[in-house]
């Protein structure tokens, strides 16, 4: 499945054989570039960035590295290969052949799922557009821009589906995806976490770790879809997403490593005066980003989630690896619920609880990353452990919303919550302190004092490699 780069829109979907679709997407392309110019990375559009571009979607030929100006990046339409004779793996249509066209009765719902996913992609580019000016190194700057151009490509992926399969409504939705703006009062992005500000690099790395990881779980469940074009699209997006998660997890690991180094060197746990970020501050940032990302999975009990599954539109994480009937009509599962001042367990229909099932998989993944960060702390000889807060902490969606729960999972009064919330969430002082560390470092091979260098460069290049060139004086 080689990608055709000779066309205006690089693709591996045979776009040239569908003139109507090609023309529609060629009309959307300049609008996308206009949006990128307005809302993409501010101040760096003329720089040459060492980026990877997909050349083929199979495992061997994935990526090609070279210098590109971001507005010249070859955004395009890449689908993973379709598996011949595949069958729907779950829900009421289990065992039937997958759909190559949109099933009429699910058209509206499917469009909504695609639009909601698609909306997150440009949103994160908008949230991160100011960060280049305070980059901790050229290595990190390049990684930021790689993530940004790939989120732009993910938007292309969803827009392709809208244009190719949803006719006029699809084209209108594709235009709207370029009109909403992250954080806008009148026309915001669809989901809450994508309207939050990403004011500093610690927030960004937390976002790449926790919020992009929600993206991984949403994409993985859409990659199970009975609507085959959506499944193929999401399968390829997941290969790109892996790098975003690497940026988040390894980035936070490097912040932690630097903090521990300063703690040992100066024999203190207050490293602010030495230009590091206290582990307690890292913990509060983590509490915030983890809790807003948990909200993205939706309510614990959801008829929509049940319907998506039964209709064969959205599966579970790695559906094929699960050993049950893949229909769940008789199954039940335990759910935690706050009731009368305590958190209790109740048995609920498994179908209605699918958001919680996906959230469980996400939480387990976050726990594994947490163990790796704690290993960094332990290896540095520091006696401290970071922890994920309770799943009910600081939640705005689902049955924990409006209930005051500490990171340890204790229900407290509103007064106590108000008095103690900055023990648990970043305070204005924390944010100001982190902001004060955000000074650009753009000399090749140098790194800001609050983050350790990575163990190795990108694509076997040395750390001193000039990952971004032509940076304007800031
Ligand atoms: Fe994405
Ligand atoms: Fe991403």
Task: Give your account of this protein's structure.
With 474 residues, this protein is mainly α. It has a single domain, classed as Orthogonal Bundle (Ribonucleotide Reductase, subunit A), CATH 1.10.620.20. It is built from 11 helices and 5 strands. The strands form 2 sheets. Strands 2-1-5 form a 3-stranded antiparallel beta sheet. A two-stranded antiparallel ribbon has the order 3-4. A hairpin with an 8-residue loop joins strand 1 and strand 2. Helix 5 crosses helix 9. The longest helix is centred in the middle third of the chain and has 39 residues. The protein is globular and about 65 Å long. The mean pLDDT is 95. Bound molecules: fe (ii) ion (2 copies). The site of one fe (ii) ion has 5 residues, from helix 5 and helix 6.
Helices and strands in order:
Elements: H1 19-39, E1 48-54, E2 63-69, H2 107-127, H3 138-165, H4 167-177, H5 201-222, H6 228-266, H7 279-295, H8 303-310, E3 332-339, E4 342-349, H9 354-379, H10 414-424, H11 428-437, E5 468-469
Antiparallel strand pairs: 1-2, 1-5, 3-4
């Amino acid at each position: 499945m080689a990608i055709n780069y000779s066309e205006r829109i690089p693709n591996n979907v045979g776009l040239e054989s569908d003139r109507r679709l090609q023309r529609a997407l060629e009309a959307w392309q300049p609008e996308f570039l206009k949006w990128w110019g307005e809302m993409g990375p501010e101040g760096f559009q003329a720089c040459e960035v060492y980026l990877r571009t997909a050349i083929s979607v199979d495992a061997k030929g994935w990526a090609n590295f070279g210098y590109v100006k971001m507005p010249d990046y070859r955004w395009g339409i890449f689908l993973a290969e379709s598996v011949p004779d595949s069958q729907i793996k779950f829900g009421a249509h289990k065992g039937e052949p997958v759909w190559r066209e949109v099933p009429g009765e699910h058209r509206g719902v499917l469009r909504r799922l695609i639009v909601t996913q698609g909306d997150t992609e440009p949103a994160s580019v908008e949230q991160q557009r100011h960060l280049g000016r305070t980059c901790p190194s050229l290595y990190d700057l390049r990684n930021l821009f790689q993530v940004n151009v790939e989120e732009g490509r993910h938007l292309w992926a969803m827009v392709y589906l809208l244009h190719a399969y949803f006719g006029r409504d699809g084209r209108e939705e594709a235009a709207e995806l370029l009109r909403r703006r992250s954080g806008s009062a009148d026309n915001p992005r669809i989901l809450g976490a994508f309207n939050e500000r990403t004011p500093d690099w610690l927030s960004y790395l937390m976002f790449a770790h926790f919020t992009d990881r929600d993206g991984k779980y949403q994409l993985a469940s859409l990659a199970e879809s009975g609507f085959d074009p959506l499944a193929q699209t999401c399968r390829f997006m997941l290969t790109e997403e892996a790098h975003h998660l690497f940026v988040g997890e390894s980035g936070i690991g490097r912040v932690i490593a630097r903090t521990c180094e300063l703690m040992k060197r100066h024999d203190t746990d207050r490293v602010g005066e030495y230009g590091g970020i206290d582990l307690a501050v890292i913990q509060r940032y983590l509490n915030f980003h983890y809790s807003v990302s948990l909200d993205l999975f939706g309510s614990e009990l959801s008829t929509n989630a049940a319907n998506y599954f039964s209709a064969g539109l959205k599966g579970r994480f790695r559906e094929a690896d699960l050993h049950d009937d893949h229909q769940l009509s008789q199954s039940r599962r335990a759910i935690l619920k706050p009731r009368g001042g305590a958190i209790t367990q109740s048995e609920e229909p498994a179908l209605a609880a699918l958001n919680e099932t996906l959230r469980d998989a996400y939480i387990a993944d976050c726990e594994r990353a947490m163990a790796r960060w704690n290993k960094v702390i332990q290896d540095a000889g520091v006696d401290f452990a970071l922890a994920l807060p309770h799943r009910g902490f600081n939640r705005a969606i689902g049955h924990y919303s409006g209930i005051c729960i500490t990171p340890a999972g204790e229900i407290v009064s509103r007064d106590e919550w108000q008095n103690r919330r900055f023990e648990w969430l970043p305070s204005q002082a924390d944010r100001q302190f982190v902001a004060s560390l955000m000074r650009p470092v753009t000399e090749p091979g140098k790194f800001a004092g609050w983050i350790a260098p990575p163990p190795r460069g990108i694509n076997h290049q040395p750390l001193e490699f000039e990952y971004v060139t032509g940076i304007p004086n800031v």
